[in-house]
Amino acid sequence: MFSIAGEEGQAKLLTIMRNISGELQRAEAKYPDDPMLPSEPKVALKTIKAELAELDRELERSTLNPEALFKEALQTASMSVKFLLYVALPLLEQANPPNTLHR
C-alpha cells in the first residue's frame, strides 16, 4: 500500500487527475450541449448517479474486467469533478467572497 502523501501516491494521483481531465474534455466534446448548471444541481446529480450505476453494474459482473472497471470509475470521478467545477464551486463562490475555496 502507498500513501497519498508519498512520492508514489502523488505520482498515481497526478496520473488519475490527468485521466479525469482527458475524460472531461472528451465528454464536453461529445456532449457540448449538456452543461451542468448551478441552477439545476439535482439534474447534474443525475449524471453522477447514472455513471455510478454503470460502475456498480461493472462490479456485479461475474468476471471482473480491470480496464472496464477503471473506465467506469474514471467516468464517475470525472462527472463528480464536473459537478464540483460547474455546480458546487459557482454556488460556493456566490455564497462566499473570492478565495474561500479550501486548499
Describe this structure in words.
This protein is mainly α and about 100 residues long. The protein has one domain (about 5-95). It has helices spanning about 5-30, 40-60, 65-95. The radius of gyration is 16 Å and the shape is globular.
Layout of secondary structure:
Elements: H1 7-30, H2 41-60, H3 66-95
Helix pairs in contact: 1-3, 2-3
Total number of strands:
0
Low-confidence blocks of residues: none
Rg from Cα: 16 Å
Structural class: mainly alpha
- N to C succession of SSEs: HHH
Task: Work out the count of structural domains.
Answer: 1
The biggest sheet amounts to: none
Number of helices: 3
Assign a percent range to the helix content: over 70%
Range of strand content: under 5%
Shape category: globular
Mean pLDDT figure: 90
Distance, first to last CA: 25 Å
Q: Give the oligomeric state of the chains in this entry, treating copies of one chain as homo and distinct chains as hetero.
A: single chain
Short account of what is shown:
The protein contains three helices and no strands.
Descriptive keywords:
about 100 residues; mainly alpha
